[in-house]
Amino acid sequence: MTSTAEAGLIKRCKDGEESAWEELYGTYRGQVTGILSWGKWRLSKEEIEDLSQEIFLELSRCLGKFRGDSSLSTFIGHITKNRCISHIRKVTALKRPREDLSSFRKDDPEENSPYDPPDQNPGPEETVISALEIRAVRDTIRQMDPECRKVLNMRYFKDLPYDKISETLGVPIGTVCSRLKRCILKFRTLMEQKKPALRPNR
Question: Could you say which DSSP state residue 155 is in?
Fold first, then answer.
């Protein structure tokens, strides 16, 4: 893609043109999948598919920060590699054995009594806040247009992958990404307006 064509595509994407996101996805999907398929990452087919979808959603959020200091291909390559590294670190951390909290405390000056870990259950106030937040989320989604309600429900409540959402809605994955971006921004704006009501009275 020439630099002029690339600049035009980026501008159309920033303007929110869904066909531009479809074009971007079609143009760079092979590059993203190619990087994710590098042997050193050791990713499964499912991980490659999930990460690919996450990368394009992340791209829809951060494309506004792209200043053209490098080619769009280089920019997308950096995002893809960084996402791979973050994913591998997360997976590695989850595989590490957790510290045994029931072990004896060596620094106990009186006796080696079993360590009693702090209560991890939420207190009364945290429980109230959680209930208020859940209600606010549901109310906010009900206020949104049917298109946003549908795509947010499929992604965040039914936990459907992007390809399934694309298939169900009958639109390209690039459109799913741009639609989610638009709806998430709208959702956040509405939730910001509800913040004062999420603080329980003392």
Answer: I
The string of pLDDT tens digits covering residues 153-185 is 888 788 888 888 888 999 888 888 888 888 888
Q: Could you report the per-residue pLDDT of 50-100, keeping only the tens digit for each? A: 888 888 888 888 888 888 888 999 999 999 999 999 888 888 876 654 444
Residue pair 134/180 in contact (Cβ under 8 Å)? The answer is: no
Note every long-range contact of 38-43, with CB atoms under 8 Å and residues 24 or more positions apart, other chains counting: 41/84, 41/88, 43/84, 43/87
**Complete domains list, the chain, with CATH:** 3-94 (1.10.1740.10), 124-198 (1.10.10.10)
| Among the listed residues 17, 19, 20, the one whose alpha carbon sits nearest the alpha carbon of residue 72 | 20
Number of other CB atoms surrounding residue 17 within 10 Å = 14
